[in-house]
Specification:
By secondary structure, the protein is an alpha/beta fold. Helix content is 28%, strand content 24%. An eight-stranded mixed sheet has the order 3-2-1-4-5-7-6-8.
């Protein structure tokens, strides 16, 4: 639960840069629970979050994350970064001031660093500068382990087309108890680089087994 001061800080950042924050109202508890219900916490070693803001998802993730796992959160807003570093004292948490498009560099996956089990994003992909959303989708697919999941919540289905070239399977659904109602999606990378299909939970919406990054 955010304090009144936290909510005012979030609102002030929205007014300064509304294109970088999806909604003036933080995500509802219902949407958070629905999104995180997709996570296999027992098998999760590395979790990445894009655009953590005031920590709406960060804190529930840490509450369920294994003691030996890591959470890396990435935000371009210095105020949010400073707030998280000052307000959350947890050795599993690494707060990075940077862009989600640089996730491979941040994790060091190109030089042998661990790939993520899950990446979660609430970044407003449709309002980012031209080409950035596409770059984030591609970089995320490359930063995930085989069978890893990209968890996304947005306020329209526009973003689904970004996932098509890079993920083996995508499920999505609307969450109505949220202001405004949001779409949540799970995009999964292929379990095996040689396999033709991926097994995923939920209702299948898009499947392109010939276009995937392990």
């Amino acid at each position: 639960m955010h304090s009144v001061r936290d909510k005012l800080k979030f609102f002030s950042q929205f007014l300064r840069n509304p294109k970088m924050i999806g909604s003036v109202i933080p995500t509802s508890d219902s949407a958070i629970a629905t999104m995180l219900s997709r996570v296999d916490w027992a098998q999760t070693r590395l979790f990445v979050e894009y655009g953590p803001g005031m920590g709406t998802f960060t804190r529930p993730i840490l509450a369920q994350l294994r003691a030996d796992a890591r959470l890396v959160v990435i935000d371009t807003c210095p105020s949010f970064v400073a707030h998280l570093r000052a307000s959350i004292d947890d050795p599993r948490l690494r707060v990075v001031h940077g862009s989600a498009a640089d996730v491979e560099t941040i994790l060091g996956t190109r030089t042998g660093g661990d790939r993520a089990d899950y990446v979660l994003s609430g970044l407003p992909l449709s309002t980012l500068p031209a080409g950035v959303a596409e770059q984030i989708a591609e970089s995320t697919a490359r930063a995930l382990r085989p069978g890893g999941s990209f968890l996304i919540y947005q306020y329209s289905r526009w973003f689904l087309r970004l996932l098509d070239p890079w993920f083996a399977r995508v499920d999505h659904r609307w969450v109505w108890p949220n202001i405004p109602p949001c779409v949540i999606a799970e995009a999964r990378t292929e379990e095996d680089a040689l396999a033709g299909e991926v097994q995923a939970a939920g209702n299948l919406v898009i499947e392109h087994p010939d276009k995937k990054v392990a």
